[in-house]
Amino acid sequence: MRPSPALLTDRYELTMLQAALADGTAHRRCVFEVFTRRLPPGRRYGVVAGTGRLLEALADFRFGSAELDWLADEGVVDDRTLAYLADYRFTGSMVGYAEGEVFFPSSPVLVAEGTFAETVLLETLVLSVLNYDSAVASAASRMSSAAVDRPCLEMGSRRAHEEAAVAAARAAVVAGFSATSNLEAGRRYGLTTIGTAAHAFTLLHDDEQEAFAAQVSSLGADTTLLVDTYDVRRGVERALAAAGTGLGAVRLDSGDLGGLAADVRHQLDAAGATGTKIVVTSDLDEFAIAALAVAPVDAYGVGTSLVTGSGAPTCGMVYKLVAREGADGEMRGVAKASRDKTSVGGRKSAARRLDADARAVAEVLVGGPDERVRSWRPGPDDGTLRALHVPLVTEGTIDPQWVGADGVRAAARRHRASRDELPRGARRLSADEAAVPTVTLALQG
Amino acid sequence: MRPSPALLTDRYELTMLQAALADGTAHRRCVFEVFTRRLPPGRRYGVVAGTGRLLEALADFRFGSAELDWLADEGVVDDRTLAYLADYRFTGSMVGYAEGEVFFPSSPVLVAEGTFAETVLLETLVLSVLNYDSAVASAASRMSSAAVDRPCLEMGSRRAHEEAAVAAARAAVVAGFSATSNLEAGRRYGLTTIGTAAHAFTLLHDDEQEAFAAQVSSLGADTTLLVDTYDVRRGVERALAAAGTGLGAVRLDSGDLGGLAADVRHQLDAAGATGTKIVVTSDLDEFAIAALAVAPVDAYGVGTSLVTGSGAPTCGMVYKLVAREGADGEMRGVAKASRDKTSVGGRKSAARRLDADARAVAEVLVGGPDERVRSWRPGPDDGTLRALHVPLVTEGTIDPQWVGADGVRAAARRHRASRDELPRGARRLSADEAAVPTVTLALQG
């Protein structure tokens, strides 16, 4: 039994619900759109992640007696609102970018439709999940891209909130990482877990040789030995003495990783351990990974910079009301007027325009009358448009393909395909604008 | 029933345990120390937070059949290790800085003692909790300090992982915030929750006047009306028309907040609404708060920059083995040799040296033989030393004073006292070194 996520919610969502139930507007049909106004400085694309986790949480989003009693005791909302919450379940619909897709400024990555009452309650949950997971995936994609064919291993749990760490491991795998050190992420999402020993294991023993012997004896010669507790050269000698030339790997966690890796590779090869791999860890980010491209490194372990989004620890996604039913029963687009926080009213669909080589050339936002946008699909004359919205929730029913371990595997495949579609040069790490422009296609009424 | 946190753990902790159980070193007594090598660039102090959450999680840290079955199915560890885990509970001891205390580079904020087996398993959980919560509290303290007597309100849930958001709200309150928008944080930790309406509520209605009337009718005239959906001046007029001069507050969420606040204050006062407060929100951080000191603002709502640590989204705390029993049964200090990641071996206690005005002048690390350090207390000749270590867990028993809502309230009081003890000038926001130097006091054997 998971605890209910229903109170992972900002108080104003419930007070708005109360006021809207009182004046009858709570039952107006609404369309909320999730998008980001800009990418982090220098970033060329973002990666949608967390969709599966969001849908898993949505399935559990119920106000049970524990939640209702607390809300009543605190006087957060009135009795009519409590009665509404007691029966709450989301019966609306959501479409959005499939998890793993890349996105750009203004991309409508999620569109939620339902009554005001049922959609307004989801703002915080939707944004918490998508903002964090997408921030991690967006950083992870740059790292796995910089690593080219070498595996990236997620090891950042200790530098993130303990539950965020599980989500970070999942998002990293969506965006190209091979495995994680986090056991709970392995259990929940079927991810491959990795890890052998820390410096503490060496220091626990009276000397390094004893520690390596104990590790090899228990975990086998194909384990990874951490060789930099004292002196790397002596560490490698002792590692080979303990495991022989069948040693799986050595790990370097400090110092000049590129220079050390070259020395260690030479030492291993000279000893005949040509199959022994070199894993490097120690405050790596996408730039450090790229800089190690010419070093004889076999895998990268990444921690802090991954789980904190490599300088962009959250996406700036917002959940905005873009259309709602009026007193006349008609849907109409709405937007606030602020100059510094622009929104474009009205429901939008989205597609990626591809060139003859199947490379993205533009992010196309499809706007117009609500019903036309809602049913829009690229037509025969739109051969170069790939539609981006997929159904996630249909009248309250969550499509099971997006959740669980299967959802993560599919998202990882989708991310590779989506990233491969980016224009040549879009994966360079140098700071630049969004890889493709965002343009608008206006459907007529 | 909370899910077990036992797998919120890096795999290598379990593989080290397996190897250490096999060679008998698992039962050596060990001392692990949590500290950070440096503060984020420009920061003058950090704030310990998360201690209460950590102890709550420690109480639940058990390997149940679900966890054991998964570990067995995945072949993570052998049967002997599974048997050990099945009976696992932490029977060791922890001392540390009380939650809310400020800290500096090398401050031993937590010291865990027990067998290698029982202490090594806690590394990831300890660091995940302390690194995230302390990062948020360290940022929050600068914000609440910059706000002086004006309340700071935590509103960042949407920009953090959904469970991290709860921890962030708690950490913010530890470090001087008054309230949070997050309902779950209110429920778990007895925090005051706040919030009334978003732009969506105004946009839901056919016009702003209707929206304000509905809100006032449902939530009362002392509610906070968000007045910047269309035009602020017209918004304030409508707010007063709806609520009268008894209106609780108006909120500004965009534009030039300082200029707008002055205009709105003038408009409110001219209308006789001299008691109506002005709340500002919109990407505030400690610098923006400081810049608004001369504006007629009554409260600050802070989101993104708070929950992401205002540029430092994690503390760099590490969990290092600093002493362990040898084959001879004696405790000895240990440390790895790396030049870029220095550690100082041996158990350490800590105290803050105060001057005659009770202002901190140094962070004193107390080192020496294990037993002397362990029992060290400032003596009569150490009148200016305030000891910083308090017992958190004694032979497996968690001291209840640190957990739950009481723990948060006490931590918030303690933080105010600890911050007030900083040298004059240490609370300036300009980039500088740690506010006091860290020095060492060596006890003789």
UniProtKB/TrEMBL annotation, chains A, B:
Domain Nicotinate phosphoribosyltransferase N-terminal: 7-131
Superkingdom per UniProt: Bacteria
Keyword Nucleotide-binding applies: no
Keywords: Glycosyltransferase, Ligase, Phosphoprotein, Pyridine nucleotide biosynthesis, Transferase
Residues spanning the signal sequence: none
Gene Ontology terms, MF aspect: glycosyltransferase activity; nicotinate phosphoribosyltransferase activity
Post-translational modification: Transiently phosphorylated on a His residue during the reaction cycle. Phosphorylation strongly increases the affinity for substrates and increases the rate of nicotinate D-ribonucleotide production. Dephosphorylation regenerates the low-affinity form of the enzyme, leading to product release.
Enzyme Commission number(s) from the entry: 6.3.4.21
Pfam family membership, one: NAPRTase_N
Pathway(s) this gene product operates in, as recorded in its UniProt entry: Cofactor biosynthesis; NAD(+) biosynthesis; nicotinate D-ribonucleotide from nicotinate: step 1/1
Catalytic activity: 5-phospho-alpha-D-ribose 1-diphosphate + nicotinate + ATP + H2O = nicotinate beta-D-ribonucleotide + ADP + phosphate + diphosphate
Purpose: Catalyzes the first step in the biosynthesis of NAD from nicotinic acid, the ATP-dependent synthesis of beta-nicotinate D-ribonucleotide from nicotinate and 5-phospho-D-ribose 1-phosphate.
Family: Belongs to the NAPRTase family.
Name of the protein in its database record: Nicotinate phosphoribosyltransferase
Organism per entry: Cellulomonas edaphi
Lineage, broadest ranks: Bacteria, Bacillati, Actinomycetota, Actinomycetes, Micrococcales
